[in-house]
Each structure stands twice: as C-alpha cells, then as structure tokens.
Amino acid sequence: MISVYSHLNMNDVDDKDLILHSLKTKKEVLKPLTQIQICPECKEENAPIAVYCVKCDSLLPQTRPEEIAKILKENQTLQARVEHLEGRFETILKMKYAIACERQ
Ligand SMILES: [Zn+2]
Question: Are residues 26 and 39 in the same domain?
Fold first, then answer.
C-alpha cells in the first residue's frame, strides 16, 4: 500500500518498463525540471533565461534568443491579463460601493 500520495500516468509506467528491460537508461527517462545552464567557465548553475553567468559574468553559450523572446511574450500576456483583471476588480468594487450607497 502506498502511504504517500503518488500520481502516475501511463508514460511513467512505460518508462519504468523500458528501464526494467534495459531499453532506456534512468538518465534518458529522468528529465530536468528546468533547463539550468551550466557556465562553461566556472561551472555555476544559471537560470534558463540567463545571458551572463551570475558568478563570473561570462556570456553563456546556451542562451537561445527565440526562447527568451517566447518567455518575454508570455510575461507580457500574463501582465496584460493581470491588468485586465485588476480593472474588472475595480469596477466590481465601484458597483458594490454604489449599491451600498443606494441602500442608505
Ligand atoms: Zn561562470
């Protein structure tokens, strides 16, 4: 019996099966959660979108401009959604205030 919550999908089961039958290695199956960039100069771990190393300021070779552009575009989209929701929230607060004033 599993005493801790565990979420498995068919890909997890397939991967375990492939490892069990030596068709894949654990290293091939286990994917990193984020694509950390390792600095070639000092071996420091850097954020996926870092252009320069945080430790030695070297230019990181794995920096992909298209990925940075994609992340920036997603951030702009999220910012626009937050601003839209803030505007709607303010409208709701004004309506609530107006209703409260009418009742008095
Ligand atoms: Zn470095």
Answer: no
Taking CB atoms within 8 Å and a gap of at least 24, the contacts of 50-56 are none
pLDDT band at 64 (very low <50, low <70, confident <90, very high): low
Contact between residue 44 and residue 56 where contact means Cβ atoms under 8 Å apart: yes
Domains of the chain: total: 3
Domain span including residue 1? 1-31
Claim to verify: residue 68 and residue 94 sit in the same structural domain:
yes
Measure the CA–CA gap between 89 and 81, rounded to whole angstroms.
12
Task: Provide the pLDDT for residue 51.
Answer: 85
CA of 48 to the centre of ligand 1 (A): 14
Contact in structure between 55 and 44 (CB atoms under 8 Å): yes
CA of 37 to the centre of ligand 1 (A): 10
